[in-house]
Predict the structure.
Amino acid sequence: MTNGAALQKTVLITGATDGLGRAAALLLARRGYRVFAAGRSAEKRAQLDTLSREKNLSLQTVELDVCDDASVQRAVANVLAKTGAIDVLFNNAGVNFTAAVEDLRMEDWRRQFETNFFGVLRVTQAVAPHMRERRHGRILMMSSVSGFVTAPTQGAYSSSKFALEAMSNALRLELYPFGVHVVLIEPGYIVTGIQQAALELSKPYMEKMNNGPYAPLYARFFASVTESRAESKTTPEDCARVILQAIEATNPRIRYGVTQLATVAKWCKRLLSDKAVDAIFRRRFGIVRHS
């Protein structure tokens, strides 16, 4: 896509009222795309609509809950009624439950997958038929470094991203004959609202985190998050520029990493054995065998 052609392109972004989705929505609108920024929070949608009017951007928000079939159908129908087509779908909405596999309640395992996997699938199934019929479109999936390596306490989040990667791999091949590209975005650690939201989701587990058998692991994990936050130099706007690149490339790559961590982790996964990767994580998180 060229910048000139972008004036006629319509983009639907889920989870677009905060963090990486919001940064992408604003950048794409400034580039001339017609952006529909979807989200659940009425307050955040109103704030983004106000900013859009102030900046005279071609951006409007849409109420959309990726966990609700009717909400997804209404939102997609709304966009199609206004534009006739969705050229780019960016599946960005996601949550992160942090807990050891043993500790995390089944209901929260289900919530993790309902948003990060089934939510993406729900929106994709609503949009893909229109792209297929038009023989044109691009679907971007917000994956993660956690989609190919798994840190301790990230079993649920990482599992949802592994599942997303697998589904995207199949979808990419299935839609290839119809001219629809499927692209995975794999950022590393970028400071956004998802970290604070993850802490809120962790509150029911605080007793186990402080006093349970995995307490030392939780302490080291949260210390590493603090370190990563201090060291992180990549901004949501940096990620948005990578997303723009993935949208405008004539022949997009299958995967786009964003941070240096993403690049290093990808090469470590390719070059090192599973035991070697485990050893790296054990050293980083102080995991030792009890006597």
Q: What stands out?
A: The first strand starts at residue 10 and ends at 13. Residues 221 and 227 are 10 Å apart (CA to CA). The longest helix spans residues 106-134. Residues 5-284 form a domain with the Rossmann fold fold (CATH 3.40.50.720).
